[in-house]
Every structure is written in C-alpha cells, then in structure tokens.
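Note to self: keep these together.
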Amino acid sequence: MPDIVDVQVDELLREAEQRLRGASAPARPMPPVPVKDSAPAAEPPATVSKKQLAVRKPQAQPPREDTKKDTTGPNWFNLPKTDLTPDFKRDWQLLRMRGLLDPKHQKKALRSAPPEYSRVGQVIGGPADFYSARLTRKERKQTIFEEVMGAHDSDKLKGKYAGIQCNKTSGKKAFYQRLVSQRRKRQN
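Structure:
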C-alpha cells in the first residue's frame, strides 16, 4: 500500500478547510505518490513548491479558565473557597452533631459535606453591647470545640445515661435480684 507524503496530507487539509469555509477547492492534480523503494527519497518531488512544504502550525487557542472559581463573585461579597484544615473539619463535625449535645433543643441537621465557599471568623463584642451580654476573658475560647465543651454539662449526660440503663434493666434478672434482696432486708 502506498504511503501518503506529508505534502499530500497538507494539501488535503487545505482543501477541506476551503470546503468548510464554503469556497470550492481548486481542482489541482495531486502529485504522484512515490512507491517505496529500498532507499527512501531524501528530496521531495520537483513539482512541489516551497509554499506547500511550509510546516503547518496549529492555531493558538486562548488559555482555558479554571472551571472552579476561587470566590463566589461580587454578588456574594467574593466569599473565598473553604480551606479544609483539620480544625475546620472538627468544628464542622461538632456543628453537625450539635443535636446530641443538647437533646432538648431540636436543630436542623446540616449536610455531611462542608460548604464549598465559607469563612470562619470571630465575633467581637462592641462597646455598645449591654455589659451582661458580653463574655468575660475566662469564658472566651479559641475554637468552637473548646467553647462547647466549656459550656457543656457532663453530669447531665451521665444522669441521662443512668436513667436509660435503669429503664432497660427493669423487669429483667437484675431487677428481680434487687427486688429479692430488698425483701430479705425487710425480713431481717
């Protein structure tokens, strides 16, 4: 099978481009396809011009912009992308499980993945705030986790756990043994 020379490929591509533009391609005879001999041809055929030998360079494409933006845009005050540090992940997990810390207050569940765009800040009390509404220095904490654990009453959970265990064991073997031991105490 005869091989196609680079010059012929260029010519075919030019004709295809002209057809796509709507102009008809000039009817030029194609240069003959050389048959492969034992020695490759070092020079192109004499009928090929220097213009046809010019190397085709691809058109420069404009650089692609990243599909992911770094900010939300001016309508959302250019909120930056969330920086997923270990502290932020821990705080997000704590916010998601805040219903477990205080079962009396029902809160809407947060999604498992942190928001794509967010910023963590610190609330600073102004001098116009009422004095009793401000936190003292001892009450101020560095992270959300420290603040929640500082305000959290662990005795409340222990009492709740003990109550659940007491209800679970009532009517079972342990309940019956305790009842029998109380009867023996009364008889003595």
